[in-house]
Write a structure and sequence with these properties.
Elements: H1 12-29, H2 35-47, H3 59-72, E1 79-82, E2 88-91, H4 96-110, H5 126-129, H6 141-148, E3 158-159, E4 162-163, E5 198-200, E6 206-208, E7 216-217, E8 220-221
Antiparallel strand pairs: 1-2, 3-4, 5-6, 7-8
Helix pairs in contact: 1-2, 1-4
Amino acid sequence: MHELVPETPLRHGHAISIDMAYSATLANSRKLITDAEHRRILDLFSRAGLSMDHAQFDEDILDKGTAAILKTRDGKLRAAVPNPIGSCTFLNDVDAKELNAALRRHKQIMKGYPRNGEGLEAFVDSSDTGYTDNNKPEVKALETAAAKAGSLNGNGAIHGGVIANGHANGHANGHANGHANGYANGHANGTNGTNGSKVANGNGSIDEVSNGTNGFTNGSRA
């Protein structure tokens, strides 16, 4: 219920931790755990920044939540409470009067904790949903990284999966997996030659390379 009550929902873990902290108070009220054990549980939750209470957790919400649980558990509450720490007991004989009394005591205890028992980073945000609080989509991670690198919307920026300026897995001016001036799997401008190998010259013909002469210019032999 706690996840759905606030305008901005609580994270699931924080909603659960409120229930657990309240259940510890209920168990302590029934003398199932000692005062020291009760404080040990609450102190641990507080140090971890977990929620133990929320302003909208009141008797009305408790009543609605209890009614919803009874519908899904064959009319039994089956409230899990520590008895002792490390074990639990399921309570079916707790009425609304006892539940509300435990809630009032729980809220009084929460006044002695930071933020009255409310947790840190308790509410759902864009990291959980991909949306900001005002329902505007978050910038995609790729675009964010590109923006930080100063390349967004510039040369080489990605727009809809297409690389700008006709570069496709290769080099400038549309050359794919090759080199400038028409070389295909050859050498460009100053690469060492190889005895007896052949290099395309850019005009569709083959030139013979001899004696390891250094360098080719636009497909012709040095």
